[in-house]
């Protein structure tokens, strides 16, 4: 479900950007968030996002260096909505004449979508263990895989799949789903379709 917010609706918003600011990768906290947009959905693609920052003096132009990776955490300290709004990797950055930085990117699912899984074969293993090890290798900050995978005699991939395609195939075989949380955690779980809805329209 797409979400778009202006800074007036969430005044306590800040972005933590990790990039090569000087000679090494460090993190900066930036509070000049003008607006942001997050496309959040449960599917097998990476969710896209866009953040606009005010930078009239060009303080953050180091992000534009072509070899610098840019990772973003958008945080809110708003009461009742505190915590991560998104964690992702930048795909494109633009800087306009009005001193506004626009950063667009995808969530951490991009790490697995953009990487081809090497051929492999595992015997007598639960898929969650294979997925957890590969996710750690790719750079996911954390994983919440729960104990829902069943033991498999053989798991294999021939090198024609991305990591995400390989994982998603394993997860769906166990009738579960996979997505990435706002803090970058890879999540494997079943959906609670059996729960009865508990909401009203109008006055109950």
Summary tags:
204 residues, mainly beta, 3-stranded mixed beta sheet, 13 strands
Question: What does this entry look like structurally?
Answer:
The chain is mainly beta and about 200 residues long. Helix content is about 15%, strand content about 40%. It contains three helices and 13 strands; from the N terminus they run ββββββββαβαββαββ. It has helices at about 110-115, 125-140, 165-175; strands at about 1-5, 15-20, 25-30, 35-40, 50-55, 70-75, 85-95, 100-105, 120-125, 140-145, 150-155, 175-180, 185-190. The chain has an eight-stranded antiparallel sheet with strand order 1-4-5-8-7-6-2-3. It has a three-stranded mixed sheet with strand order 10-13-12, with helices on one face. A hairpin with a 4-residue loop joins strand 2 (about 15-20) and strand 3. The radius of gyration is 20 Å and the shape is globular.
The N- and C-terminal alpha carbons lie at a distance of: 27 Å
Strand content: 35-45%
Using only CA atoms, what is the Rg?
20 Å
Helix/strand order, N-terminal first: EEEEEEEEHEHEEHEE
Poorly predicted runs are 4-9
* Main sheet: strands, sense, barrel: 8 strands, antiparallel
Strand order of the largest sheet: 1-4-5-8-7-6-2-3
Helical residues, percent? 10-25%
The chain-level mean pLDDT equals: 86
Number of strands: 13
Instruction: Report the principal-axis shape.
Output: globular
How many DSSP helices? 3
Structural class, by secondary structure, is mainly beta
